[in-house]
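Researcher: Good morning. I'm working through a list of sequences from a screen, and I'd like to move beyond sequence-only analysis. For each chain I'm collecting a predicted structure so we can compare shapes side by side. This is the next one on the list. No need for commentary yet; just the structure.
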Amino acid sequence: MSNDQYPMSNENKIYRILDANINRAMEGIRVAEEVVRFILEDKKLTRKLKALRGDLKRTVNQIPKKKLLSARNSLFDVGGKLYTKEEKSRKSIKSIFKSNIKRAQEAVRVLEEFIKLIDPKLGKSFKNIRFNLYEIEKQSEVKIVRVKLQPVVA
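Model: Good morning. Structure tokens for this chain:
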């Protein structure tokens, strides 16, 4: 069965973009949070990322969940099977943190833009979250550079 058999309205396509980027942002923040919590053991940064994830959840909860879920189409996502060279391996803890904090920032930017078509007042909330992610990235950079953990290859 192809995606052509399930035509989507433009509204559903917007909700699909929102849904995918909500997931991407939450996942990216969670990975970054795990690095600062378990690798850096930095209570302050862990608290900031956890709070930011909570802010994102509260903002996202203002978007109709039913519309997000009904627009989800994971099985037929043309990008779902793509796996880039960068995704296949990681060189260091820093590369894990960096790729995930960037993923979260980019996803929140997409949310900030596309939510304006559905509920413009939420755009500012996503912008605030994005700028907080930039600041956390900056604060983490110095500490992550010092981490010497490398991948364990069996």
